[in-house]
């Protein structure tokens, strides 16, 4: 999967490395900004109140 | 890896572009991409999925325990400044004290738990608590605000981990420790009289006007802090009870009561 991506990136090794870095940052950004905030309430780690539910 | 180590004999056997070529500009022989068998491909893909899952979980831990704190502290600081500004303006204009339920109603100081002040806002929904503040209960049992002067229970909740983690060190509170609630013109000094280190999350009786399990039987001015326990999980709830000892007028310099000095 990752070697496939690497092979299909344009440019030489340095350009590929740079593009990979940008891709990684983009993925982490999307995770932190959208995916994790969505997933967090669905996981039972942060319920602090006592209630009837 | 396999084909390149097998040497020249392999080149003739493959029809794809895996043949090794000597670099024309003096490069070492380049390892060319090779084709794997379907089983090897499947295993390699599966392995990459596992690595990805591992990295994803690691990132989620970083998000939960670090990034949410950064965001929450920033938001809490902003809201706390707003409340302080409002107080300053109100005392300048000499107008009546108004409590806007949307903004914070005051600050909680618990020296043995945390060196910083904790803004208190209305409600205990995630939306409120995720801003790095403590919330007073409106549901299932409505909290009695100390500002009302009535006897009852001032019940609060805040995060143990992530989102500011304002009650992270709740286990450091001991009986007899002070809990001070600061409003625009009054310091409410409470003293801890009982701690429940572990209880069910359904135990809403701890929020009652006379909190059940606290050992008190008569109505009084109580404060209840709740959060989750053990740390990093939400299996149980940790409860700390305090009783109002005295109140102090806030002076011009906002000199804190002796418990905070």
Automatic annotation (TrEMBL), chain A:
Transmembrane parts of this sequence: 12-36
Protein name, per record: Uncharacterized protein
Keyword Membrane recorded: yes
Keywords: Membrane, Transmembrane, Transmembrane helix
Entry annotated with the keyword Membrane: yes
UniProtKB/TrEMBL annotation, chain B:
Location of the region described as Disordered in the Swiss-Prot/TrEMBL record: 1-34
Organism from which the protein derives: Streptomyces composti
Gene3D superfamilies, A to Z: Sortase (2.40.260.10)
Keyword terms, alphabetized: Hydrolase, Membrane, Transmembrane, Transmembrane helix
Designated name of the protein: Class E sortase
InterPro entries (alphabetical): Sortase, Sortase_Class_E, Sortase_dom-sf, Sortase_E
Stretches with biased composition (Polar residues): 1-15
Listed transmembrane segments: 39-66
Record-linked Pfam families: Sortase
Keyword set includes Nucleotidyltransferase: no
Lineage: Bacteria, Bacillati, Actinomycetota, Actinomycetes, Kitasatosporales
């Amino acid at each position: 999967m990752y070697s496939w991506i690497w092979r299909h990136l344009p440019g030489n090794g340095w350009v590929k490395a740079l593009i990979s870095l940008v891709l990684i940052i983009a993925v982490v950004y999307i995770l932190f900004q959208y995916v994790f905030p969505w997933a967090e309430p669905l996981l039972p780690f942060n319920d602090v109140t006592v209630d009837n539910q | 890896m396999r084909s390149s180590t097998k040497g020249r004999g392999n080149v003739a056997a493959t029809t794809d572009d895996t043949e090794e070529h000597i670099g024309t500009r003096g490069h070492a022989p380049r390892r060319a991409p090779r084709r794997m068998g379907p089983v090897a491909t499947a295993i390699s893909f599966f392995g990459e999925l596992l690595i990805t899952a591992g990295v994803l979980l690691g990132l989620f831990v970083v998000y939960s325990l670090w990034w949410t704190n950064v965001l929450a502290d920033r938001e809490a600081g902003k809201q706390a400044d707003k409340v302080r500004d409002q107080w300053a303006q109100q005392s300048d204009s000499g107008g009546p004290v108004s409590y806007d339920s949307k903004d914070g109603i005051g600050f909680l100081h618990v020296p043995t738990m945390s060196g910083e002040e904790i803004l208190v806002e209305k409600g205990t929904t995630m939306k409120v608590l995720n801003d790095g503040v403590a919330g007073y209960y409106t549901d299932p049992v409505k909290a009695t605000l100390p500002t009302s002067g009535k006897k009852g229970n001032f019940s609060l909740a805040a995060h143990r981990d992530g989102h500011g983690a304002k009650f992270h060190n709740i286990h450091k509170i001991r009986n007899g420790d002070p809990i001070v609630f600061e409003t625009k013109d009054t310091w409410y000094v409470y003293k801890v009289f009982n701690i429940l280190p572990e209880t069910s999350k359904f135990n809403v009786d701890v929020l009652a006007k006379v909190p059940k399990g606290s050992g008190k039987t008569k109505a009084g001015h109580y404060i209840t802090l709740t959060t989750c326990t053990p740390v990093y999980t939400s299996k149980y709830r940790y409860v700390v009870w305090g009783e109002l000892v005295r109140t102090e007028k806030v002076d011009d310099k906002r000199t804190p009561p002796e418990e905070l000095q």
